[in-house]
Design a protein that fits this description.
Layout (H helix, E strand, L loop, with lengths): L2 E3 L3 H13 L5 E7 L11 H4 L4 E7 L6 H13 L4 E4 L4 H24 L7 E7 L5 H9 L17 E4 L4 E5 L7 E3 H9 L10 H14 L9 H12 L10 H14 L12 H4 L1
Parallel strand pairs: 2-3, 2-5, 3-4, 5-7
Antiparallel strand pairs: 1-8, 6-7
Helix pairs in contact: 7-8, 7-9, 8-9
The structure holds guanosine-5'-triphosphate and magnesium ion.
The site of magnesium ion (MG) has 4 residues, from helix 5.
């Protein structure tokens, strides 16, 4: 069983702070990775968002399988969840968010006016697992670099308010994970880069990835996953001094190729998985 235990101190502090701040928030913007739309959903967020506006954004659609992403959007729509897909750096895509937020914001304004409260900018909180693209999206929305981004989990360590317009302010938050996740959720988060690479078995994770690629017909191969990884290492010349393949380094490179989209647009979690497994 694939096991991960990773809960950096800054996440414990962030969770506590978010629980306080959430009372003053109007809209929760929940980011999920389009390659793993279920595993990247935080089980606590649904409850947090009950009495608030809730917008789910699937990020990194450029790395995910377009057909499957379209299916996911339908699945979420059927559950009455408001979901859009957004590439963090695409300005047209980012405009879609502002449009959605303004629709939700108008409802918030109406509610406040009914209570006799004055208008004030609508407070949105951006949440999601590490490395999902929260800070990148906020920078695109703000039309300037206001938040630090980076391709590793745990870049943002504290909360940061960013003004988007007269109507909207956004709160950037650190990636929030839950203390323990076993099985598929853990391996999916590891493969997509939401968990530090130092806290799980890399070769085991990549073995699972290769099996998924085979099962989902992204690659055709009659080899076992480790044999396939060995072949990949051989082709790339990733050899130890004795001439054997360096499996650890091969796994690192394979993962790099997957994460950068070099292996193609690949979605690890499909709506039909639950029906067939
Ligand atoms: N391909 C692709 N990469 C993206 C997209 N959005 C963000 N990224 C990349 O994903 C990485 C992580 O982005 P961040 O914005 O730092 O993620 P974050 O959610 O703020 O991460 P933490 O602060 O660590 O929780 C960066 O390398 C971004 O360039 C996207 O739509 N497509
Ligand atoms: Mg960040």
């Amino acid at each position: 069983m694939f096991k991960v235990q990773w809960y950096p101190g800054h996440m414990t502090r962030a969770k506590r702070k978010i629980q306080d701040i959430i009372k003053t928030i109007d809209i929760i913007i929940e980011l999920r990775d389009a390659r793993i739309p279920l595993s990247s959903g935080n089980p606590d967020i649904g409850k947090m968002a009950l009495d608030k506006g809730h917008l789910i954004i699937l990020t990194k659609p450029d790395l995910a399988d377009k057909l499957i992403t379209d299916k996911w959007v339908e699945v979420f729509k059927e559950k009455n969840l408001n979901m859009i897909t957004v590439k963090g750096t695409d300005t047209q895509d980012v405009k879609k968010i502002i449009k959605q937020l303004e629709i939700i914001a108008d409802k918030v304004f109406e509610k406040r006016r009914k209570k006799g409260l004055l208008d004030r900018p609508v407070r949105c909180m951006v949440v999601g697992v590490s490395n999902v693209g929260k800070s990148s999206l906020i920078n695109s929305l703000a039309l300037k670099k206001v938040a630090v981004t980076g391709n590793k989990p745990g870049v943002t360590k504290g909360n940061q308010w960013v003004t988007i317009s007269k109507k909207l302010v956004l709160l950037d938050t650190p990636g929030l994970l839950w203390p323990k996740f076993d099985g598929l959720v853990g391996v999916n988060l590891a493969l997509t880069g939401a968990i530090s690479d130092n806290v799980y078995e890399l070769i085991e994770a990549v073995g699972y990835l290769i099996q998924e690629l085979k099962d989902k017909k992204y690659i055709t191969s009659d080899k076992e996953p480790y044999e396939e990884l060995k072949l990949f290492g051989e082709k790339r010349g990733i050899l130890l001094k004795g001439g054997q393949v360096d499996l650890e380094k091969s796994a690192i490179l394979f993962l790099k190729d997957y994460r950068s989209g070099k292996l193609g647009r690949i979605t690890l979690e499909w709506p039909e998985d639950n029906e067939t497994k």
